[in-house]
Structures are given as C-alpha cells and as structure tokens.
Amino acid sequence: MATQWKNDQPIYLQLKEQIMAMIIDGILNEGEALPSVRKVAADYQINPITASKAYAELVDEGLVEKKRGLGMFILKGARKNLLNAEQKKFLEQEWPEIIKRISLLGLDTKQLIEAATGKNKD
Amino acid sequence: MATQWKNDQPIYLQLKEQIMAMIIDGILNEGEALPSVRKVAADYQINPITASKAYAELVDEGLVEKKRGLGMFILKGARKNLLNAEQKKFLEQEWPEIIKRISLLGLDTKQLIEAATGKNKD
Amino acid sequence: MATQWKNDQPIYLQLKEQIMAMIIDGILNEGEALPSVRKVAADYQINPITASKAYAELVDEGLVEKKRGLGMFILKGARKNLLNAEQKKFLEQEWPEIIKRISLLGLDTKQLIEAATGKNKD
Amino acid sequence: MATQWKNDQPIYLQLKEQIMAMIIDGILNEGEALPSVRKVAADYQINPITASKAYAELVDEGLVEKKRGLGMFILKGARKNLLNAEQKKFLEQEWPEIIKRISLLGLDTKQLIEAATGKNKD
DNA sequence: GTGGTCTAGACCACT
DNA sequence: GTGGTCTAGACCACA
Question: In sequence order, which ranges of A26-108 are alpha helices (DSSP H)?
C-alpha cells in the first residue's frame, strides 16, 4: 500500500501531516499508540529514520509522548489542541492570503462554487 | 524597504510571484521594462543571481522578453495569459485542497467570512 | 502514589538511585529486606523487568545480596560504602562540573543562596 | 584536533552545548556566521548529518537563523536570551537538586571548597 | 559555496 | 519488542 509522496515537500513532513489529519479525523485516538516506527517505515516503504523524524516532530509539538521502550502514544488533549492550533493558523494566516489571491485573480463566487462542487466528490 | 521573505519558499520564487502579481494588478504594464536586475537586487537586499533567476523564470513562462543591452520587457498579452493560467491553476489545484482543509478543520461559513472581512482591509 | 519519572534517564537508574538515597538516609537499614520486585513494580507502575534491573545493579555494586527464595537484603556496611563512594564521585566528578557551569553562567553567591534557601524547605 | 566525545550523551547534543557555551562566552558573537556544517564535521571528525542535527536544534531554540544558501547566523539577542534561560534553568531546576544531594551526602562547606579550588585551576 | 533529505545498514539502550 | 544514534555516500535546491 505505497502512498504517493509529493516531490515538493519532504516525506517526513507529509507523513507528519497525514498523522495529524488522522488525529483530527478521529482515526487515531488519544491514549492510543502510534504504529511503531518500523511498521510505518515498512508500510509506506520508507526508511525508518525518515519515519522517526516525523514522529519526533509530533513529540516536539506536544501531540505525542514517547514511552521508553514501549512506543509513542497520543497525548490527552492532542486532538483539541491540534484542532485549535490549525484552525487559528488557517484563519489568521492562510485564509487572508487566499482571499487576497482570489481578489487578485478576479474570481467570482460562481466559479468557486463550481470548482468546489465539481472536485469535492471524494 | 526590505521586504520580508518567507522561509518556506525560495526567494526567487517569491520575487517572481510578486512580479506576476504586479502584472496582473496593472502595476507593471505590457511593453514596459522591468527594473534592472541590479536595481531589484539592491532594493530587495538580495543577491543579483537570485533576482536574475526570478527573471529567467518569467522569460521561460513567456511573460517577459529579454532585449540584449536594453533590459527585460513585459510581452504583449502577458497579463491575459497570466491571468488565465493562474485562474485555472487556482480553481483546479489549489481551491479543492482548500475546500478539503476547511472541511477537515470543521470551519463554518461564518468564521470564514469574519476572518476574511477582518483582514481584507489592505 | 505514582512517582514521576524523568525522561532523560532510564527508569531503572532512577529507581536504583532512589533506593540508594533511602539507604543513605536510613529509611532502609542494613539487614532489612528490600520490597519484592513485584511490589515495587506495582507501587511505581513500572514493568517488573525494569524493577528487577535496578535491583540487579544494586547487587552488582555490592550493596544488596540476593537470598534465593527469600528476597533481596541490604548488606552490612552498605550505607558506609555507599556514602563514601558517592561522596568521592560527587566531589571529584560532579562538583567541578558544577563549579565550571556556575562560573560560565556568571552566577554570584547571593543568587545561589537565595535559590537554595527558597527551595530547600522540603 | 579531534575533541573527545563522552559516551553517555549523543554527539550532536554535546556539540550543541559546546556552541552554546561559545556564545555565552563571547567566542561566537551575534551576527556572525557559524562555521559551516561541513567544516565542523571535518574539524570534529563527525558525520555532516550529526553536525547538522546540532545546528537544527539551535535554530529550533531561536538562537540561530538559517539564511538560505548562505549559512547559519547567530541571532541578535541570542547571548542574552541564552544566558537568561540557562541561569533560570540552573537556579530553578539543577541547583535545588544539587543542594539536596549535598545534604543527603552530608558534605560540609570545607570539603566543597577544597574540591572546587583543587580542580578549578583550568 | 550553503544546508536538506533520503537510503542502507549497523549498533545501542530501554522495557 | 520499542526508539535513538551514527556512519557513509548520494542527490537536490538555493544563493
């Protein structure tokens, strides 16, 4: 089940973002263990160190804790903290840029809705 | 007037995008000359090679032409071509991603409008 | 009564050091039995193997002896030997490092005394 | 000029601490460039990635900034911030532990002064 | 020239 | 079983 990696971003960041999305989505729940570094590495066909780097970032961001010799576990509150932080980041940083870009490109609502509904069927 | 460069994108791409925005916006008009590589480099406090790389990309994309000994000039039709290409790219690639992200974060229309109107005053 | 384990040191070493401190402090006395591996493991919420590793180190260092079928017992002279060894280690290895660090950080006696008296009430 | 690395701590952390000490000491000054990753790697006979990991931590802690394609530079205020943070950490976390240990070991001032003056001649 | 990323393989410490 | 560290060597993007 090899996922396709984009070339414009390091794999470890893409993996980290996938895991964050899974936490937000409730696919991975608080208190649960993440799959082991070696397992993700095997599943996604990447080097264990690359996977490990993604996990280390999650620890740094306070979403995951390391239990020595046992593995990595999703912390309590991780979903809520993550959701809040991502919402804030989106609304305060990304969204204004998007609005500016839409305005620059002179796009109107109709076009946006069409593009959204046309593509959003997955 | 040192512009702040983002760290997550190469400077030359950021410069290129600024120039493209100025063309779309009508700040730079077709037939006009771009400021010289040396001038932008000085204005923006960057390496001339970096500025030159941004210009080279504009040439590659058919928006600008180099006239030997005279400088770089914005081609006729540049604005229209650019606008079309950017609109297409936005609607087909970026916008669907944005919609997906909004849905993942569970943001509602009200929040989006507030964030947009609050920030969109420049 | 779950003790908090530091993340920068193995649990088995932290446990060992706690026991050594209890011997020096006279909380555990020579000739007495240590609590069973299973009991410490349950009390401290750790893996029995981890507890067992701490005990094994104490045996290696000649502070404790294993009596088959009976448990682990603190040896005669354990307190004195331990105290001497730890004093030597502290004065010869740790203390010079501390002095160097204090000097590097430019801390003066007043600050040290304040910090010591403020915290040393337990 | 191969430095000796301790075995009880990863090399990249030891390197990071050496650099931090050099900043506090004024051997490396704000605004200056750090030696390149490849240079330290060669000087200290370590793998470039190991050196790079030390530098990455310094960036994470806000002491150093990365200038794309140019190298790593010590930020303004790095020395002051570092000094404050390290002093606070020492006084609030390390020093109380040390006091507790001295008290546990029953060491008196005379012994401490002797050990300090005997060793502190470098 | 700079740093970043990835691989492959090895060894270690902890539980 | 778990994650951490290091090496050696390769390739890439940036200025």
Answer: 37-43, 48-60, 78-89, 95-105
Q: How far is B45 from chain D, CA to nearest CA, in Å?
A: 13
* Spatial separation of the C-alpha atoms in residues A111 and A101, rounded to whole Å: 14
Measured CA to CA, the distance from residue A96 to residue B116 in angstroms comes to: 6
Q: How far, rounded to the nearest angstrom, does the alpha carbon of residue C19 sit from its chain's CA centroid? A: 5
Q: Tell me the per-residue pLDDT of A99-115, one tens digit each, with 9 for 90 and over.
A: 999 999 999 999 999 99
Residues D27-81 have pLDDT tens digits of: 999 999 999 999 999 999 999 999 999 999 999 999 999 999 999 999 999 999 9
CA D12 to C1' E15 (Å) is 25
C33 has which bridge partners? C73
CB A83 within 8 A of CB B106: yes
Kindly list the distances between the CA atom of residue C101 and the CA atoms of C105, C110, D12, D104, in Å, as whole numbers in the listed order: 6, 16, 20, 22
Which protein residue lies nearest to nucleotide E9, measured between its Cα and the C1' atom?
A47
Q: Which residue has the tokens 């050196």?
A: D51
- With residue B32 as reference, give the H or E element that holds it: none
Reading the block at residue A98, the tokens are 């998007």
- DSSP characters over B46-90: --HHHHHHHHHHHHHTTSEEEETTTEEEEPTTHHHHHHHHHHHHI
Closest by Cα among A40, A63, A50, A67 to A13: A50
* pTM, two decimal places: 0.88
Exposure b/e, A43-73, CB count within 10 A at least 16 = b:
ebebeeebbbbbbbbbeeeebbeeeeeebbb
Q: Which of A95, A100, A103 sits opposite B115 (nearest CB)?
A: A95
For chain C, the domains span: 11-74, 78-117
Q: What is the topology classification, in CATH, of domain A11-74?
A: Arc Repressor Mutant, subunit A (1.10.10)
Residues with Cβ within 8 Å of residue C20, at least 6 apart in sequence: C58, C63, C82, C86
| Distance in angstroms (rounded) separating the CA atoms of residues A17 and B100 | 14
Alpha carbon distance D72, D36 (integer Å): 7
pLDDT in tens, B41-91: 999 999 999 999 999 999 999 999 999 889 999 999 999 999 999 999 999
Cα B60 to the center of its chain, rounded Å: 15
Residue A117 has pLDDT above 90, yes or no: no
Which residues of A fall within a CB distance of 8 Å from C11?
Answer: 68
Gap from C6 CA to chain A (nearest CA, Å)? 11
Element (H, E) at D65: strand D64-67
